[in-house]
Design goal:
alpha/beta; two-stranded antiparallel sheet; 12 helices; 51% helix; 14% strand; globular
């Protein structure tokens, strides 16, 4: 049965969004890099608190920092809007950021060279820290051959523009969907290529595991792939140094244990990933993507 395409009205709205996207990029590319980052910070700090996402971020912060005072929560809310705004505007000029060697520092780059030299695939994992787009750019511009995954946008016209734009700084994403996406990842690992996945967002039907003292559902894919190919999870994180300047950290690999009970082994891997994400969030709380509904829906219903 053929799936119905978008309505004419939906297509018209998508095209308008694409034109607006073009206009914003044109403006952003006419300004200095730090000016674009500063404008994003100001804009999101001004409008962000007026949105429903602000309440989601506040609920998340109170889960993670239950002992924090109201003043501290307000400070963190403002700081996370600063980082979020900078990130979303910086995404429009990533080629300029990546193309400036003074803007991106890589800590433990030797680990990436080691992965490439051994020609053994790893499963890169990370979360939405700081400007999270910097991390895949660092991977693909290193000697490591890696497939980078992401979630495709709903608007196909903006999606095409974003994919073409990312090619400018070497990142060629693919959006796995269902069985076909899983087969692509398996094929890449089978060829000796690494894969990279974000592993810090809600995944309905995923593995139930603790995250800051509450049960959340996390995608099992990274741990399952690492176990299947007898390799490690390779965590990375991005830190904001100042404005549009970043530090990318290649952390120590996470080794998984095969006991013969695949379900239990995957759960153990998910728990290790959650613990890694927790540690990074606590270290730099203003730089995580707090507006995502990471915990079960009833948590946010009660908060309302």
């Amino acid at each position: 049965m053929t799936q119905a395409g978008p309505s004419r009205w939906q297509d018209f709205l998508w095209r308008l969004e694409a034109l607006a996207f073009d206009a914003v990029i044109l403006l952003a590319r006419a300004l200095p890099v730090d000016a674009v980052s500063d404008f994003g910070a100001w804009f999101f700090k001004t409008l962000g608190p007026l949105t429903s996402a602000h309440r989601v971020a506040e609920t998340n912060l109170r889960i993670v920092f239950p002992q924090a005072s109201d003043a501290e929560i307000r400070r963190l809310l403002r700081a996370q809007w600063d980082n979020t705004g900078r990130t979303f505007l910086e995404l429009l000029i990533m080629d300029r950021i990546i193309g400036d060697p003074d803007r991106v520092e890589v800590v433990n780059a030797a680990r990436l060279r080691q992965i490439a030299a051994k020609k053994e695939p790893v499963v890169f994992v990370s979360g939405h820290f700081s400007n999270f787009e910097v991390m895949p750019a660092v991977i693909v511009n290193s000697p490591v051959v890696s497939q980078i995954t992401y979630r495709a946008m709903n608007n196909p016209y903006v999606e095409a523009r974003v994919r073409d734009y990312r090619f400018r700084y070497g990142v060629r994403y693919f959006a796995p969907k269902g069985g076909d996406g899983a087969r692509e990842l398996l094929a890449a690992l089978g060829r000796g290529e690494s894969v990279a996945l974000m592993n810090d967002q809600k995944f309905n039907g995923g593995v139930a595991a603790p995250f800051f003292g509450r049960t959340v559902h996390t995608a099992p894919g990274p741990s399952r792939l690492a176990l299947r190919f007898d390799t490690v999870l390779q965590p990375m994180s991005v830190q904001r140094k100042h404005k549009a300047r970043f530090r990318v950290v290649v952390h120590d690999p996470i080794a998984l244990t095969k006991t013969g009970d695949m379900a239990a082994d995957i759960e153990a891997g998910v728990r290790k990933v959650n613990a890694f994400i927790e540690a990074q969030v606590l270290q730099r709380p203003a730089e995580w993507f707090w507006t995502h509904r990471r915990w079960p829906s009833e948590v946010y219903k009660r908060a309302r």
